[in-house]
Amino acid sequence: FIRNLNLIRAKVPILKFRDTLAGVDCDLNVNNVVGIYNTHLLAMYTKIDWRVRPLGMFVKYWAQRMDIHDGSRGRLSTYPLLLMLIHYLQAACTPPILPNLQAKFPKIFNYACPLAELDMRLELPWAELRSNNPASLAELFVGFIHYYTNEFDFSRWAVSVRNGAPLPIDMAIRRLPPHEQAHTARSFKVFVEGRTPGQVSSIMTAPSRGLQMVSNGPLIPPGAPLSFASAQPNISSSLYMEALSLTIWQFYTRTRQSKAKYAKKVHLRNALLEVVSGVFKHAGLFIVGSSMNGFGSDQSDMDMCLTVTSQYLQQKKEAFAVLSQLLPPLRNCSKYNI
Questions:
Q1: Radius of gyration over alpha carbons of the chain, in Å?
Q2: Residues 6+ apart with CB under 8 A from 126
Q3: What's the predicted TM-score (pTM) here?
Q4: pLDDT tens digits along 223-255
Q5: CA spacing 20 to 30 A to 258: which of 100, 250, 264, 317?
Q6: Would you call the peptide bond into 95 cis, given omega within 30 degrees of 0 as the criterion?
Q7: DSSP letter string over 81-125?
Q8: In this predicted model, what pLDDT tens digit does every residue of 99-133 receive, in sequence order?
Q9: Cα dist from 181 to 10, 176, 186, 199, 315, whole Å
């Protein structure tokens, strides 16, 4: 029961649609496999420490309310924002909340690892990886803002989870494809290195604008639908910090993706794979992004990556052509009982 099919031409073409039975909006790309690896890495970080998921969801919400979360306007999209949080938990907390998984397990968190070997149920020695840092959710949230407002020099450093420490910007730029280096160095202000050395998110507008907005004001955005009032706080107040921790936790428990919604998404993915396999016999279909990495809500769209070849696929022409071939069967997919 697919509705609102819309094939969008872009640098990475997207087929958008809504499944009315599951109540899920979907974005489907072709062979943009970096998203699969990114999803796997973020999901493993959420399993190390219980504080990562609520912090990630609240930081995303906070950034939206501060108007610094919108990749389409040259601001922070969700993925680099979450990498900034993980980097902070690695590099700016004493002792660190999170380790560097890519340094500890290079054979697992390797872009060359075959997709078939990426296991979302992977078991690592979680107890050994967990930190004894007792910081509260509020302390970590305030520390995140302080770090990127007062300590991190965006003019010199790139955020790097892969390094587990800030990376000189010139080094991050040298890791980009040669034809992208000059434009990136000239045009962008903030650099967040992804899972692989050549994957750098370049952001036009530095997040320090939004961070400065709260340096002398409430940490809870005005008008937020939260139980804790957004009155001018005294950051040193233990009562305020306790209330802020409770607010972050309540926001997480109220908005996180339910098991029922996740099950609907998995069922939809399985049904869609049957449809896709009728066109591309050996296709793979992966749920990526917040629906799978632990930072999703019941309102989150389901992003998916369709794999049709192990070879490089030119996105603007070849990927668009692949998605075009899916339009007829998806228009008739109600007979598949999705």
A1: 21
A2: 47, 48
A3: 0.86
A4: 443 433 333 445 557 888 999 999 999 999 999
A5: 100
A6: yes
A7: HHHHHHHHHHHSSSS-SS--HHHH-TTTS-TTS-GGG--TT----
A8: 999 999 998 988 778 888 889 999 999 999 999 99
A9: 21, 6, 9, 12, 20
